[in-house]
Amino acid sequence: MIISTFQKLCLFLLSLCGLRITHGIANILFILFFLTKSKKYRVAYKNLKLCFPEKTEYWIEKTARESIREYLKSIFESPYLYRSSKKKIRTLIKNIHNEDIIKNCIDKNKGIIFMTPHHGSWEFSGLYVASKIKTFHMFKPLRNKALNDFVFKGRESQGATLVETDNIGVKKLLKALKSSNGIGILPDHTPKINQGVMSSFYGIPVNTATLIYKLGKKNRVPIIYVFSERLANRKGFDIHLGVIEDDFYNLDEKTSADYLNKKIEYLVNKNIPQYLWSYERFRNRSGVEESIYN
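Below the sequence we write its predicted structure tokens.
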């Protein structure tokens, strides 16, 4: 009870702090994360080493450190972003690349699939698209009840609806598309073994979910990829939008997974340290014996 109350108080206080303070806290804690060689740092290092074998040891270590710093920023800025009004959300945006894409896709009246990788501020991306069209997102409950309730309410703060991460949730997403609403999906979430298809990410075998392809194939639902790039010196965010070409739905599951992973690589290359390299992306792979995270 005492711990839960303390957590709620911390989350509430963070929600009152702007990017200058929350990113400042992240910068301080980053030192502790790096000096202790945390598990997240080790995972980030291994992933970068795999994906960029041509890079120097100095670059790998530096990028791993920077990615942990960005990860911490994403954690501590979230309470503030959840609490921000739609007007405040707009003031945090400095540039929107291809802003007309969302309106053009809404006009097609087929619904929209928003593809938001673990890149930059994916929480901000979700809040931004929810301010443009009614959206539905899958949400896996967190073990910590206080944090779970806070994140759940926060992600719904701009009008989004969260659904279960199971077949019931998938049916709700299909219903949302049929009602010309938007749905948000993390395309780089690692599915359970044998529940995705084997593809590659930066040339490394990776188990890849096919949900985007399956949900959109029948009606050729427009797919928009979103990346909210965190700007230096707490200046806010640049939003990068793009649309997946119509030929995507002419592909089979395996080739469509390859296509989406290439698109994620394209986004990641815009700002490599802001990708969530500390996520164990290369797990649950079939036909691959080694486990790089042992």
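The CA atoms of residues 119 and 275 lie 4 Å apart.
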